[in-house]
Amino acid sequence: MIGNLNYQEIEEVLQDQLIGRIGCHLNGKTYIFPISYAYNDPHVYIFSLEGKKLDIMRGNAEVCFEVEIVHHVVNWESVVASGTFEELK
């Protein structure tokens, strides 16, 4: 499917999936990590142990988040959002 998702379709994709990808960038290198997440509009929450992903996001809080539903090779939906990492303790 080629086109744009409306607000309700975006909400459904974000609420229905469990795994997404977070993109982050530090010192000239870009990384993409698969993550499990929870969504509560307008926030995406992830859990991570200490490691590279947290080190990068602590060094550069600008992130990108992506999640998709693949129905078929030519029928899929994806949501991509940019935001700012905030560490919760």
Fraction of residues in β-strands? over 45%
CATH topology value: Pnp Oxidase, Chain A
Supply the number of structural domains.
Answer: 1
Total strands: the figure is: 5
Tell me the series of helices and strands, N- to C-terminal.
Answer: HEEEHEE
Q: What value does the average pLDDT take? A: 93
Class based on secondary structure composition and strand pairing: alpha+beta
Poorly predicted tracts of residues: none
Rounded Rg: 14 Å
**Order of strands in the sheet with the most strands?**
3-2-1-4-5
Largest sheet: 5 strands, antiparallel
- Termini separation comes to 40 Å
CATH class: Mainly Beta
Helix percentage: 10-25%
CATH superfamily: Electron Transport, Fmn-binding Protein, Chain A
Number of helices: 2
- Second-tier CATH architecture: Roll
Question: Per the principal axes of the C-alpha atoms, what is the gross shape?
Answer: globular
Structure overview:
The longest helix has 10 residues, at 7-16. It is built from 2 helices and 5 strands. The mean pLDDT is 93. It has a single domain, classed as Electron Transport, Fmn-binding Protein, Chain A (Pnp Oxidase, Chain A), CATH 2.30.110. A hairpin with a 2-residue loop joins strand 4 (62-72) and strand 5. It has a 5-stranded antiparallel sheet. The protein is of the alpha+beta class and 89 residues long.
